[in-house]
Amino acid sequence: MKYLLPVLIAATFSFAQWGGGGGGGKSLNDYQKKSVSGREIHVYAPSGLKENSPLLISCHGMDQDPNYQQSNTHWEAVADTAGFVVVYPRGGSGYNTWDVQGDKDTKWMVEIIDQMYTDYKIDKKRVYLSGFSMGGMFTYGAMSKIADKIAAFAPTSGTNVFGASKAQRPVPIIHPHGTNDDVLPYNNVEGFIKNYRDQFHCPSEAEVQNNYPNAENNGATMYTWGPCDKGVYIKHLKLPGRGHSPSKADVSDIWNFVKEWTVDGKIGETTPESSSAAPASSAEVAKSSSSGTGVGPGQSSSSRGFGFGHRSSSSGGTQSPWGPATGSSSSVFGGADVVAGSSSSIGGGLGVGSSSSMNAFANALPEDPSLRLVSVYKSSDNCIMVSNAQGKTITVFNSLGHVVRTTRGTSGVQKVYTGAKGVYIVKVGTRTFKTSL
What we know:
This protein is of the alpha+beta class. The chain has 3 domains: 4-266, 3-Layer(aba) Sandwich (Rossmann fold); 273-365, no CATH class; 368-437, Immunoglobulin-like, CATH 2.60.40.3080. Helix content is 19%, strand content 31%. The protein has 9 helices and 22 strands. The protein has helices spanning 4-18, 66-73, 75-82, 104-120, 134-142, 189-199, 251-258, 282-285, 358-362; strands spanning 32-36, 39-44, 55-59, 85-89, 127-132, 152-156, 173-178, 207-212, 220-225, 234-239, 261-262, 265-266, 300-315, 328-346, 350-352, 375-378, 384-387, 393-397, 403-408, 413-417, 423-428, 431-436. It has a 6-stranded mixed sheet with strand order 1-2-4-3-5-6, with helices on both faces. A 4-stranded mixed sheet has the order 7-10-9-8, with helices on both faces. Strands 19-18-21-22 form a 4-stranded antiparallel sheet. A hairpin with a 5-residue loop joins strand 16 (375-378) and strand 17 (384-387). The radius of gyration is 25 Å and the shape is globular.
């Protein structure tokens, strides 16, 4: 900390010159000044706010204050349209710093959330934490302490000089950062974010959007990794020419990302069940069975190769809810276990023999007739392609059963995944395919 303080204090002399977003809109005078456990927060609640609305907390940098953070970000402009509560809290120790290594300020954040629930009946499952500079460091640190209270995280120009924390769970992250940042240099960003990509088992390659629109920075680039464990995504917005300053130019991108999440996962989506799910009922298991390769609903098959189901039991080998197993296995009701060996798949599971091909999957008639024309294949440039999947949810699992991509189908041909060599399971709606790269 003794090295961090002089660097960040010196940087504050430049902030007044840079100015940041500034200008127009409301001021902190339009916010309500409140006290939570004797500490100051500033709250904005749009008129006509409904119960169960989200909450966004925006933390200032070191030796700054809520007024500076608000005058540069103007979160109220987004809140007026989207309908959520904004809180600008004040750092509590010398130089308005945040407790980035202990738990004093994370405990205070929980008290703020509870107070906002009492005052506005906010949705406690849709609380988002953002912060600039040391506030961004604090945002990262909060992932290891209150990830059960925060749905998504948006640190800005805030790589933590004390190193990456171990997150309590895979969490959605969006991190804007300027290339001309001379306080927390940009060249540290990639390595720092990689810590979280590795923790959450994100794809190694990012989806890259060049010339990403940003009101302040031409030629911005958005990098997206995901889906990672639990279906989360990590995004990084690279801002050429931006120095060390918060900006209202970033708040819409932040909001459009974080608003997709609750603490339970992405809104409107569920993650695949593991083998810890409740067993199928005896009535379900008693469905008709037949011998063959490739399975439709209510069928079963015995084959050599992959079994695909969320309840798996094996004999003469090992068992794992997500990893490969050897021996004889029973796979029940289409989840996400990948089992090598002899498998029996009951009531909608999927067994693929050693001599099987994609035709085995295509021949399995789905319940939904609109899925009959769907096809999955590897392109000449080694990508997984899907065709005729308009409006259907497409989920790609790797050989360990991890979700590596989730997307929405289009009417034509679309590229859904590019990654490492190996076997992949692709689920399109209620249909399941196997392919490899």
